[in-house]
Amino acid sequence: MIAIEITQSGGPEVLQPTERPIPTPSPREILIRVHSAGVNGPDLLQRKGLYDAPPGASDIPGLEVAGEVVALGNEVSHFTIGDRVMALIPGGGYAEYAVADERTTMHLPDGLSMAEAAALPETFMTVWVNLFQRGQFKAGESVLIHGGASGIGTTATMLAKAFSASKVFTTVANAQQQAASLALGADVAINYTEQDFVEQVMQGTNNQGIDVIVDIIAGDYVSRNFQAAAMNGRIVQIGVIKGPATQVDLFPMLVKRLTHIGSTLRSRSQDDKAKIIAELESNVWPHVRSGSIKPLIHRTFPLKEAAQAHALMESGQHIGKVVLTLLH
C-alpha cells in the first residue's frame, strides 16, 4: 500500500510517500480501506519529533480515518465486511489501509460523507472529553474557545451552542475567521491580533468572566485565562501551540477558586475511548443525523499531498478541518 512516512523530524517536506505492507488486523481489530483521513495538530507535533506514537502504534501519522471494512480479526463482533465506518486510531491513518480496534470504530451516521466522517472522531471525542466530561460544562454557562477557527474550535463552538451555552466566545486570527466563527454559532468572535480577549470577555459578561475555557494555545494565555475566568471557572488545557507558560500569576486562581486541568486522548485505553464513543452516540449523534451539527471541512488534499496539508495547517489560515482523501 501507499503510505506517508515521516522521513525525519522537521517541516512539512519530511512527509514522503512510501510503500508499506498492508497491516494485518489482530483479534479485536478491523482492517479499513481508507477513503479519507483527518489531519490534526498532534500529527504536526509528531512530524516535528515532539509527540511520539504510543508503544505498539504505527509510526505512520494519522489518528482518524473513514472507509470500508475489508477484513476482520477473529474476535470482532460488531462489524462485517463492507461496513462503512469511521475510527479513532493511535496512528497509521495516512495510508491506503489502516487497522482500528473495534472499540474505537463507529458506523457512519446517516448524512455524512467519507471526508466529513474522517474529520469527526479525534475532534469530537477531544471536545466531548474536555468541554463536557472534564470541563463539566452545563447548559446556561458561558464558554471561551481559543483557536476558534481550528477543527477543535469549530467543533467546540457547535457543541457548546447545541447544548445551550449562555454565551460562546471564540478567539480567531482574522476577519474571515471571525465571520465564520459567528456563522457557526459564536456570540462573540474576538480577533486576537487587534483585541485583548480578557477585556472583550469581561465587557461581554458584565465583568463576571467565563465559566469554561477551552485552550489549545498555552504560553502567555495561561495567566490571561485566569484573569478571564469566572468564579469557580474551569480551564481545560488541550494544546500548547505557544509553548510553555513561563510566567504565571497564580493569585487569581486562588481568589476565584479556579480549576485548571489538562488531558490528551491518544494515550487513553481502548476501553476509555469506547466509553467516550458511547456518550457521543447517545448525546451528539442525534444532532449529526439531523444535520444540525456537521464537521466543517476547510479543504481536502490527495494523500500524496500530505505535506501541503500540513503547510496549510501551520499557516493558521484554515477554518475547520483539513482532510486527506484517497480515490479508489
UniProtKB/TrEMBL annotation:
Ranges for region Disordered: 1-26
UniProt cross-references to SUPFAM superfamilies, sorted A to Z: GroES-like, NAD(P)-binding Rossmann-fold domains
Gene3D superfamilies noted in UniProt: Medium-chain alcohol dehydrogenases, catalytic domain, NAD(P)-binding Rossmann-like Domain
Domain called Enoyl reductase (ER): residue spans: 10-324
Compositionally biased residues, Polar residues: 1-10
Keyword Ribosomal protein: no
UniProtKB keywords: NADP, Oxidoreductase
Record InterPro entries: ADH-like_N, ER, GroES-like_sf, NAD(P)-bd_dom_sf, Quinone_OxRdtase_PIG3
GO molecular function: NADPH binding; oxidoreductase activity, acting on NAD(P)H
Protein name: Zinc-binding dehydrogenase
